[in-house]
Amino acid sequence: MRARLLGEVLPRAEGNEAILTVEDLHLSFQAVKAIQGLDFTLRKGEIFAVIGPNGAGKTSVFNCISGFYKPDTGSIRFDGQELVGMKPHRIANLGVARTFQNIELFPQMTVLDNLMLGRHRHLRYGSPAAMLRVGKAIREEVRNREVVEAIVEFLELEPYRKAFVAMLPYGIQKKVELGRALATEPKILLLDEPAAGMNLEETEDMARFITDIRRELGIGIILVDHDMRMVMDLADRVLALDFGKPIATGTPEQIQNHPDVIRAYLGQDQSASIPGGTE
Amino acid sequence: MRFGRPGLISDYATDIAIFRSNVARFWFAVLLVAVTVLGLGGSIPLGIMTISLDGESLFMLTTALFASIAAIGLNIVTGVAGQVSLGHAFFLGVGAFTAAVIGGAGEVRRVFDLQTGQFVEQVMLFGLEMDMLIWLPLAGLAASLAGLIVAPIAFRLRGLYLAVVTLGLVFIGEHLFREWDIISGGVGVGRPTPVMSLLGFRFDRTSEVLGITLTSSRKLFLLALVLLIVFGLAAKNLLRSKIGRALSAIRDRDIAASMMGIDLSRYKTIAFVISSFYAGITGALIYTTIGRLLPETFNLLLSVEYIAMILIGGVATISGSIMGAAFITFLPLIVRWLAGFPVFSFISTQPGGGFPTVAHIEEILFGLLIVVFLIFEPLGLYGIWIRIKNYWKSWPFSY
Lengths: 279, 399
Description:
The structure holds two protein chains of two kinds. Helices cover about 40% and strands about 20% of the residues of chain A.
């Protein structure tokens, strides 16, 4: 079978209008205020990065969007629909895909099965057809397998098709998880630390995949990562969070030079207030 | 069109088939033919011994084949979907009693009514005496309906909590079967089972089929074989479909599963419904073969027996379920066979004999085997089989 481009098997998003709008989002766990008044908009074809020190609430934002946390107040509108209050599987079926900070693959399954699970909502047959293995079930399996194969080729996973995920090295598992999210045919992709724990080559590969996905599919991507070099290279816009509060939103250059962001990362510059201090 | 060497996999449909090579297909066919020949009364010479089936071994193998169906069912919900269910005995019971009510004979007795001073007809046992074509599917459907009712409780809980709830189900069921005597016949009495008559074809009598005289037990064996193939194949298909993948995903990581768009409640319900359907079919057939249905049969021990089948046989595999069911069913026979050796002469074979009797040893082995398998071979007999297969694949080289 001929190698196919991702854009040939997965639907392409056109235009650059807003696809996800988060307004006045508040989330708290008892006394801990995880997110305090967050607003942002994600456009189609945009890489939007969320940065912040540990515990700033980055993953909580993802969990609110994908329906695992229910925010106290605020609204998350995706493609014209309100996501707050919707069950996670319904949100996923609308076209919101994500990867996890700590890999959440199905370890006892092969790479192919993990990717086929991503295709779950596109396999159109029910239990009776599955048990009788009628033509429709086989056709659907084969049709979706072709899509999965294109993703395997895109992510260079060919040697691992039938390997059990638990046996694979960490860097490969990260790629499989990205592949599984892609297989769902997302309209937006939430990447939670895709380069965490990876060496330089693996990080560069991951960065290449992310830009390729944006170029070929034109979908909106929200990226959370601590690798500032990668974030600043890839992102069109960056949102900096600290203790659940948005500090600044802007282009990578603006964020890099923003005094509040520097303070959040490096701490309060006290030299000015110390009498006789240098500088 | 196929290219290259024979057996080369060149399309996705072949890649996802059950038998990916002709060798696998050949050995499965050999196994089927051998079992059918044995069932028809033939004997197969195998090296120094000759294998044939009759009398007790035939009956037990029939029971094992029927039990395999329920074991496969339990493996779908517990092994594949990871929802530990101790309630399997309840679903077996629902199937058995549904079959008995729909297919079995009722009992009406003339009793003297003290108040009116007249004889009146009183229904002692309810029975409709319908054909097997009706009672067998209905037994499965009634059990799966029970599964559907239980499922909403089940998908709110998991792990130990689910185990405890399903444990409660067994006790509720057992109480119901004991007390509802118009259906069950009451404790210690029980009720007769339905007649095994499929559109006039009697499984309970000797008759000639296609020129071969078949006794009742041989017919039942062949029926069990056919049904196991049908249900086994259906389950195998289910496991390699999107539903099977979704169920394993729920077992491994339910959060990630819902992120793939899998509705957890819906799929857990599907697992329970299919699993109890399988249990209902087995319940209907196994006790009909035995010939008497007692309400106290469907207790916790029976549930544990099925749990043992899948643990010893192999979790989340179809062939493992069958191996486990056969192993547990044949355990008494194995122990009695062992007692024949001088080393094991301390085991008394008489029911009234001193400790330890065959029954004692069987109970001890039962628990011991579960422990041993969980520690040393978590994949069960299936795991051992895979290891043997891999050894001979590369024989005489070790890699």
